[in-house]
Amino acid sequence: MRRPMVRKSLFPNEREIKAFLDGTKTTYTAPVMPHGIPTDYSQGNGLWIYMSENGTFIKDLSVSPFWQRLDHYNYLYGPYRVGETYYCREQYSYDKDGNVVYRVGYKGKVKYKFGWDGVGAMGADKARIFLKVKEVRLRRLHDMTVEDSLKDGVKPNPKAKNPLSTYMRIWDEEQKIKWKENPWVWVLTVERVNGEKI
Questions:
Q1: Using CA atoms, how far apart are residues 127 and 121, in angstroms rounded to an integer?
Q2: Residue 194 neighbours by CB distance under 10 Å
Q3: Of 16, 21, 138, 158, which has the fewest CB atoms closer than 10 Å, so is most exposed?
Q4: Using an 8 Å Cβ cutoff, are 61 and 34 in contact?
Q5: Chain segment 141-154, per-residue pLDDT in tens
Q6: Whether 47 contacts 61, CB under 8 Å
Q7: C-beta of residue 130 within 8 angstroms of C-beta of residue 195
Q8: pLDDT higher than 80, residue 103
Q9: C-alpha to C-alpha distance for 140 and 158, rounded to whole angstroms
Q10: Residues 6+ apart with CB under 8 A from 174
Q11: Three-state DSSP class for 151?
């Protein structure tokens, strides 16, 4: 069966894959990273973002020594664009009949002794999760709300003094840039779509 020619991809972890599959996750949040690769730059060290009443500006030394308006930067280098569809990379293999199976949620045995292919090996033709971007926002991580947490597939702890404590813990477990650093993040509002109809 013909698969769509989709090239851009996301790398959700196991928790996020489960949440996309059960429909409880409708956003994808990722730290803003320098565009140029490879680079040793990071937020506050070669990558700066400035927000004012005159607009939002970004300086990314991996591509330019000058400040640029965010909309111009996004047009040239933005990693995420409204209207584009991304496929989710995940570990996969094949069952005894040669059908593609996915490590998240699969309980049976795989066909080959080498087990599961890594996420880097997955192309769009093997993917089962396709996400269409409906909105892209730039924000500070500490501006996250309980509603945002729910959209990101994380239920708040009602007994905690800080209802975002669960989200904060999960963020620190999953990300290299920690919560206390309050990084700038991309927040994508996404819609799961049928890859066959793209």
A1: 11
A2: 8
A3: 158
A4: yes
A5: 999 999 999 999 99
A6: yes
A7: yes
A8: yes
A9: 24
A10: 13, 15
A11: helix
Residue 96 in this model has a pLDDT that exceeds 50: yes
- Helix and strand numbers, DSSP H then E, in the chain: 4, 11
Which residue intervals of the chain bear CATH 2.30.130.30? 9-32+82-197
Question: Which residues of 32-116 form beta strands (DSSP E)?
Answer: 42-43, 46-52, 55-60, 68-69, 85-88, 92-94, 100-102
> Are 29 and 185 in contact, with CB atoms under 8 Å apart?
yes
- The phi and psi torsions of 120 (rounded to 5 degrees) equal -65, -20
Task: Identify whether the C-beta of residue 129 lies closer than 8 Å to the C-beta of residue 28.
Answer: no
CATH (residue range 9-32+82-197): 2.30.130.30
Q: Is the dihedral of CA 155, 161, 167, 170 positive or negative?
A: negative
* Single-letter amino acid code for the residue at 39: T
pTM of the model: 0.85
Contact 124, 9 (CB under 8 A): yes
DSSP 120: G
Q: Are 86 and 4 in contact (CB under 8 A)?
A: no
What sections of 34-181 are H helices per DSSP?
70-77, 146-151, 165-174
